[in-house]
Amino acid sequence: DVKVTQSSRYLVKRTGEKVFLECVQDMDHENMFWYRQDPGLGLRLIYFSYDVKMKEKGDIPEGYSVSREKKERFSLILESASTNQTSMYLCASSSPGRTDTQYFGPGTRLTVL
Amino acid sequence: QKEVEQDPGPLSVPEGAIVSLNCTYSNSAFQYFMWYRQYSRKGPELLMYTYSSGNKEDGRFTAQVDKSSKYISLFIRDSQPSDSATYLCAMKTGTASKLTFGTGTRLQVTL
User: Fold this and answer.
1) DSSP E strands: which ranges in chain A?
2) For A100, which of B92, B103, B104 is closest by C-beta distance?
3) Tell me: the pLDDT tens digits for B32-66?
4) Over the stretch A73-94, which tens digit does the pLDDT of each residue have?
5) Which of A6, B14, B38, B79 has its CA 20 to 30 A from that of A29?
């Protein structure tokens, strides 16, 4: 079974703090993704990575950066958290192929006060 | 206009009903179509995928794709309270690894 884990289920941070969200997958997948999910807006892609040290901007990269130093780990960084970054953050991984099925972690509910 | 449109619901049906969930899309390059199910406070999980037009059945679930109309559907027969979840459609082109998601439809199956 594919397993994608995220470092925290719930996180509360203050405006201006630097925030790290960690994601680990155990299936040797090349691709990893970070999304945020908001009511009425669905899943929006922030960044994705198709290999170690490789990254590509998604639809809403502003205010975020990422790091992928090892194949199994993909980190999302909020350089200076703001209240409009309060959201559910979901990590996913996949292996390139016909279907590119993405496997999701349980999500991190981030609240920025 | 969004690339993928999905009615957010909520959709409330009695147990045993047939449920129809739908998405429309505008990008004719989409070739692979998926349905994800997301329970409350969990990540989405893949329910079904189809390639190009046609039907695919898996137990109580049937996925249907009509590429000429740019319309996909998920049918749930004999719906159960355990089917209560948000259903997200997703699609991709042949070469891309990125998925484009609908906003999700929240389904409630009542006893």
Assistant:
1) 4-6, 10-13, 19-25, 31-38, 42-51, 54-57, 64-70, 73-78, 87-94, 103-104, 108-112
2) B92
3) 999 999 999 899 999 998 987 889 999 999 999 99
4) 999 999 999 999 999 999 999 9
5) B38
